[in-house]
Amino acid sequence: MDIAGKNVIITGGGRGMGKQFAVDLKELGAKPFVVDVIQENLDALKSETGIPGAVLDVTNEEAVEKFFEDYTAENGAPHALVNNAGITGDALFVRKKGDDIKKFAYDKFMKVIQVNLVGVFLCAREAAYQMIKNDVKGVIINISSISRAGNLGQTNYSATKSAVDAMTVTWAKELARYGVRAGAIAPGYINTEMVAKIDKEVLDKKIIPQIPAGRLGEMSEISEAVKFIIQNDFFNGRVLEVDGAQRI
Ligand code: NDP
């Protein structure tokens, strides 16, 4: 698909990688539209780059349906959706320290499931519905993670990212008949605010030494993968790994 002139919706694009995708796609002539939860970030994006956005919590079914209806009425159906909104909520599954045994908190588990799994499902479902209804041959791109293989302290996050990969394959198989593709990108550790939250010592001594490339990835390198998936019409139902050769 040619990127120029295409409607691309990016979730969680008010900052981080999603913002980078929006900026880069705009440079390629696309018409990006960002949804996120913090109005100030959307306002800053609009004033810095001219890219429009709206507040949307991707976990709210009614709001997601309404957003995609309204968006399509105004702009036509999306040609591409980048399901990028995601959060972490790390903890050990069951941890014994002295006599104290701590369990992974249910609420912490469910919060990540809601955003990273339910949110991806809802946005993809509505995007596919509008594409099919309006006979648009589009693509759904899900942002997975290297942690999908199962990562220490990330029971919830790893579970959602591996589920995202499975949904990607399922949707590619189901939606191909309508000319709608689905692909995923599994980034390694990328130089973002999410990674900046990791303790510096852990990052320098434990994480970076495990990356054969010897460094964090850059957001622009994941943006290149988004561009590739949109442009390559034979890329379907696969997960693109962009991780500097790291394996978890
Ligand atoms: P950020 O936290 O910088 O950006 C994520 C954005 O999603 C934030 O703006 C956040 O809002 C928003 N968001 C959170 N919850 C919701 C919601 N319910 N509805 C809508 N938007 C929401 O993350 P990154 O840019 O680092 O990561 C982007 C994606 O890439 C995620 O899916 C992440 O799992 C994945 N990823 C990241 C890696 C990394 O190294 N950073 C590695 C592998 C994968 P708020 O500002 O309130 O937080």
Keywords:
7-stranded parallel sheet; alpha/beta; Rossmann fold; binds NADPH dihydro-nicotinamide-adenine-dinucleotide phosphate
Give structural notes.
The chain has 248 residues and is an alpha/beta fold. It has a single domain (7-241), classed as NAD(P)-binding Rossmann-like Domain (Rossmann fold). It has 8 helices and 9 strands. A 7-stranded parallel sheet has the order 3-2-1-4-7-8-9, sandwiched between helices. It binds NADPH dihydro-nicotinamide-adenine-dinucleotide phosphate.
Cα distance spanning the termini: 33 Å
Percentage of residues assigned to helices: 40-55%
Strand count, sense and barrel status of the largest sheet are:
7 strands, parallel
Q: What is the structural class?
A: alpha/beta
Please name the CATH architecture: 3-Layer(aba) Sandwich
CATH topology: Rossmann fold
CATH homologous superfamily label: NAD(P)-binding Rossmann-like Domain
Low-pLDDT stretches: none
SSE topology string: EHEHEHEEEHEHEHHHE
Number of strands: 9
Q: What ligands are attached or bound here?
A: NADPH dihydro-nicotinamide-adenine-dinucleotide phosphate
Arrangement of strands in the largest sheet: 3-2-1-4-7-8-9
